[in-house]
Design goal:
Layout (H helix, E strand, L loop, with lengths): L6 H6 L2 H6 L5 H15 L4 E5 H8 L3 H13 L3 E5 L9 E6 L43 H16 L6 H17 L2 H11 L6 H6 L1 H11 L5 H24 L1 H4 L3 H12 L3 H10 L8 H7 L16
Helix pairs in contact: 3-5, 4-5, 6-7, 6-8, 11-13, 13-14
């Protein structure tokens, strides 16, 4: 078989989503779905006649011929007749064009799988009635950096082609308009390889959200974030207090530097974890480490929090 059908690749290219945009007739959809079923069963190509197809699919002969012509022009199927000048009840070779990119759907701009994504809602930049704030609006560079974080998180550890990375970037730009970026990153990290494409995550967000809620026992994210901030601030305060008394405690320059990093870092509890690994080098901070050991967040060498 010259064109071996890979169903996983077809699904990953969002072949069914593109079909949903194809505006085919009932007969065309029936033929296409029948050919997909045959391909999954190992029948890459069919040798048949239009009369047999008419009886098999349940449409009259003119409708079947029109459907075959239309699908062939759109390059959704590969069609070849034994004799082009006499097509009545003659043998034909028919198969599905598995490469979705070669489909011609007749739009001014060719539709892609991203065009088929149905987003549940779109966040507005600001509500219709709002209090004027001094907080500056996100710049274009900051926006680029935001969607790039999503792409970086999704592509980490995956062997993707340049085209797949480009499609991920296009979807990421839409995702940041529909969902909080921290929530998107959390979903990607939680499900990992279970999300084959960002397009699937975007179009099936509610489904993934329900599973996430069940698996995490419906954690209140705002409450969890508030708790993390409270613990971070507590550790920073203790580090600052101890740093202020460095002369009384006889702290070395290295010990002062450790406290300064913890007090000023965005993630002090992660920094405490790294400092704790070298605690024997900072004898004057033994009490500090003992008092705050419970606040540590273990992280991997890549900086990701170790799941407990």
């Amino acid at each position: 078989m010259p064109h071996e059908f890979d169903f996983n690749t077809f699904s990953k290219q969002s072949g069914f989503k593109v079909l949903s945009l194809a505006r085919l007739t009932e007969a065309e959809y029936s033929l296409t779905l029948y050919l997909i079923n045959c391909a999954v069963s190992g029948l890459d190509q069919l040798i048949t006649t239009d009369g047999e197809l008419s009886q098999l699919i349940g449409y009259d002969l003119p409708t079947i011929n029109d459907a075959l012509d239309s699908l062939s022009k759109k390059n959704i199927v590969r069609l070849h007749f034994a004799e082009q000048h006499h097509r009545v009840n003659q043998s034909l070779r028919l198969g599905l064009q598995f490469n979705v990119e070669q489909w011609r759907l007749g739009y001014e701009v060719d539709a892609t799988s991203n065009d088929a994504v149905v987003f549940p809602f779109r966040r507005k930049e600001s509500p219709s009635l709002s209090v004027i704030s001094s907080t500056p609006r996100r710049t274009e560079k900051e926006s680029d950096a935001t969607w790039q974080r999503i792409v970086d998180s999704f592509t980490r550890g995956r062997d993707l082609s340049e085209k797949e990375v480009k499609m991920a970037a296009e979807t990421a730009k839409v995702l940041i308009q529909t969902h909080p970026v921290d929530q998107v990153l959390l979903m990607i990290r939680h499900f990992g390889a279970k999300i084959p494409t960002l397009s699937l995550l975007a179009s099936s967000w509610s489904h993934f959200q329900e599973i996430f809620d069940e698996e995490t026992h419906r954690i209140d994210f705002q409450e969890a974030r508030s708790k993390h901030k409270e613990l971070d601030d507590k550790l920073r305060d203790q580090a600052q207090t101890m740093y202020a008394a460095f002369e009384t405690l006889g702290l070395t320059e290295d010990e002062k530097r450790v406290l300064a990093v913890i007090a000023e870092h965005r993630h002090p509890r992660r920094q405490l974890f790294w400092a704790y690994q070298m605690r024997t080098s900072y004898p004057n901070l033994a009490g500090f480490f003992a008092d705050n050991a419970a606040l540590m967040l273990g992280v991997t060498s890549d900086g990701h929090i170790v799941k407990r």
